[in-house]
Amino acid sequence: MIISLLSVHLFDKIDRVDVRDGDNYGNTDSDFGFSVWTTIEECLQPPVIWEKNEENPDGHWFCTEPFSEPEIFNFPGGIGDVEVVNVEHEEVLLVPREIDCNRVTFKYGVPREFRAKLLTLHGWGLDNKRDKVKVGDSEITPRDFVCKVIPSPVGATDEMTGKGCAGTWVTGWKDGKYRSVYLYQVADNQECIKKYTTNSVVAQTAVGPVIMMELIAKGIWNEPGAWGPEHFDPDPFVERLAKYEFPAGIKEMDSEYADELSEKAFLDAVSK
Which residues contact 134 (CB under 8 A, 6 or more apart)? Predict the structure, then answer.
């Protein structure tokens, strides 16, 4: 997530960059917020983690099991506590190329019941995307068949309520003290349907690339080669999030640095 690069303004040295996405969606029978095919791909691929340690002081990537290392994360925007698990996503591959840190992970709030359904698909080989089977006079991969029979998430999420949050939890040091912040963007599903005629999952996926295309078209992001968005200056991107009425936020988490900020705010208040 590109807003993770804002952390360079907030820290002298970064320890961890942990992407955390979650939601409190309800009033829908669909397990899928967008592409069924892509959801199966992301959730059942081995998640990647980046880490520096004694054996790998320069850092290395390694894979873990799908849905591993569950934790409870408290999301802003009224979403609250959500259990998140390791899921494969490209940020883990891109962030360490641009930010010097000790660990990068991506965890998403995949509900336990949905995890069980996905693992059942995998167990029966229904997530297979390569080997075609003959059905009548046609041939189709098991995954493509699953995508055909599952109702379209586009229509299934029209009445869905609640919010989704995409963000990055960054920890490190500032002014000699350990600091922890969560940089995020929250989208309300019904508001997105009214504004964009699509659900909030799709909107959060799409608005960023639209802004990136504007920055490239105007020459603000202009460097030859193939680069991930994390390579570029995040400031004009974040400024445009607000202009597109899709603003980002920051949540100061519990830390030594947060305690110092609170003490300073209290002293400033009582001294007036």
Answer: none
How far apart CA 266 and CA 152 sit, in angstroms, is: 52
Range of the domain at 79: 2-270
Question: The domain that contains 169 carries what CATH number?
Answer: 3.30.360.10
Cβ–Cβ contacts within 10 Å for residue 149, how many? Answer: 7
Three-state DSSP state, 42:
helix
- The CA-atom distances, in angstroms, between 109 and each of 22, 185, 187 are 5, 15, 15
Structurally, the chain folds into a number of domains equal to: 1
Q: Is 13:173 a contact under the CB 8 Å cutoff?
A: yes
pLDDT tens digits in sequence order for the chain, 272 residues long:
555 666 778 999 999 999 999 999 999 888 887 889 999 999 999 999 999 999 999 999 999 999 999 999 999 999 999 999 999 999 999 999 999 999 999 999 999 999 999 999 999 999 999 999 998 999 999 999 999 999 888 788 889 999 999 999 999 999 999 999 999 999 999 999 999 999 999 999 999 999 999 999 999 999 999 998 889 998 999 999 999 999 999 999 999 999 999 999 989 899 87
Residues 6+ apart with CB under 8 A from 114: 31
Work out the angle between the directed axes of helices 36-44 and 142-149 (0-180°, nearest 10).
Answer: 130
**Max Cα distance, the chain (Å):** 82
